[in-house]
Amino acid sequence: MTLPNQLSLLRIVLTPVFVVTFCVDNLLVNYLSFVIFAIASVTDYYDGVLARRLGKVSLWGRFLDPLADKVLISAAFIVFAMFRYIRTWMVVVIVARDLIITGLRFYAMFKGKPIQTSYLAKAKTFSQVAVIYFIFFYVLLQRTVLAEGRTSWILQKLEAWNLINLSMLFVTLLTLLTGLKYLVENRDHLKSMVLDFYHVFVPSDL
Question: What is the pTM of this model?
Answer without folding.
Answer: 0.88
